[in-house]
């Protein structure tokens, strides 16, 4: 009996250690981008969509915002890759605890040709991921309209409150959160993005 328990315990330990070793040497897998139907253009002026995405959910929505508005896309990338799950949770937690910000490959240098800048990101530990904090700490939006959006597994926590605190010199307009579970239905997701963008268009048209 004791021998059987020892074998089961050893196998479990091996699987757990194996998962950790595997994740330490692998980067997170990007989900496959789904295709959306052809949509009518929603004119918000010259649009830039800046986004950070570890596994592709935010990238998919950023891409759709770009398609609908005719906007340009800019992906924030870190110099050092994050490991795959489950190790990623440990490295992100340590980064958060120590207040460390990752080095970014590059950021947009000039926003002068854009009217509206979307900034999208996943929620990490109920808040802004360090790559987006790093991006905001190096960016001055000089009175531009900035619109945040998040993707998350459950709740967005203090994502939008932290975003408002850390963004510099921007006029922030109605952000939007997208949960990964409700995003499984492509046409519902598409509808949510279109409704939000049309509301933004109305707000921007009627701004003083
Ligand atoms: C390190 C880490 C922490 C996360 N923390 C949260 C969280 O606090 N709340 C939540 O709802 N989702 C959380 N998630 C899930 C992601 O926000 C969600 O899967 C998101 O859509 C991923 O976006 P991406 O594919 O663009 O990276 C976390 C994911 C990771 C990797």
How would you describe this structure to a colleague?
With 208 residues, this protein is an alpha/beta fold. The chain has a single domain (2-205), classed as Rossmann fold (3-Layer(aba) Sandwich), CATH 3.40.50. The chain has helices spanning 2-24, 57-69, 87-98, 130-137, 159-166, 186-205; strands at residues 47-51, 72-75, 116-122, 145-152, 171-172, 176-179. The model has no long low-confidence stretch (mean pLDDT 93). Strands 1, 2, 3, 4, 5 and 6 form a 6-stranded parallel beta sheet that branches. Helix 2 (57-69) packs across helix 6 (186-205). The longest helix is centred in the first third of the chain and has 23 residues, at 2-24. Bound molecules: flavin mononucleotide. Flavin mononucleotide (FMN) binds next to helix 2, helix 3 and strand 4.
Short description:
By secondary structure, this protein is of the alpha/beta class. It is 40% helix and 14% strand.
- Average predicted confidence as pLDDT: 93
Q: Going by CATH, what is the homologous superfamily?
A: Flavodoxin domain
Strand content: 5-15%
In sequence order, what are the helices and strands, one letter per element? HEHEHEHEHEEH
Q: How does CATH name the architecture? A: 3-Layer(aba) Sandwich
Class from secondary-structure proportions: alpha/beta
**Oligomerization state of this entry?**
single chain
Pick out the low-confidence regions: none
Which word captures the global form?
A: elongated
Q: Please indicate the count of domains.
A: 1
The count of strands amounts to 6
CATH-defined topology: Rossmann fold
Biggest sheet character: 6 strands, parallel
**Distance between the terminal alpha carbons, to the nearest Å?**
77 Å
CATH first level = Alpha Beta
Bound molecules: flavin mononucleotide
Evaluate the radius of gyration. 20 Å
């Amino acid at each position: 009996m004791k021998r059987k328990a020892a074998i089961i315990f050893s196998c479990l330990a091996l699987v757990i250690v194996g998962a950790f070793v595997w994740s330490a040497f692998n980067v997170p897998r990007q989900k496959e981008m789904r295709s959306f139907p052809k949509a009518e253009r929603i004119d918000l002026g010259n649009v830039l969509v800046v986004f950070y995405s570890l596994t592709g959910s935010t990238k998919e929505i950023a891409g759709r915002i770009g398609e609908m508005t005719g906007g340009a896309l800019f992906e924030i990338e870190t110099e050092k890759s994050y490991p795959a799950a489950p190790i990623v949770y440990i490295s992100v937690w340590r980064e958060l605890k120590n207040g460390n910000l990752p080095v970014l490959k590059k950021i947009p240098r000039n926003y002068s040709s854009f009217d509206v800048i979307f900034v999208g990101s996943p929620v990490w530990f109920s808040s802004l991921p360090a790559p987006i904090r790093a991006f905001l700490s190096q960016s001055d939006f000089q009175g531009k309209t900035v619109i945040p959006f998040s993707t998350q597994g459950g709740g967005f926590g203090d994502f939008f409150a932290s975003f408002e605190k850390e963004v510099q010199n921007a006029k922030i307009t109605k952000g939007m959160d997208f949960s990964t579970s409700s995003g499984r239905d492509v046409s519902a997701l598409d509808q949510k993005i279109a409704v939000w963008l049309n509301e933004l268009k109305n707000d921007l048209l009627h701004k003083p």
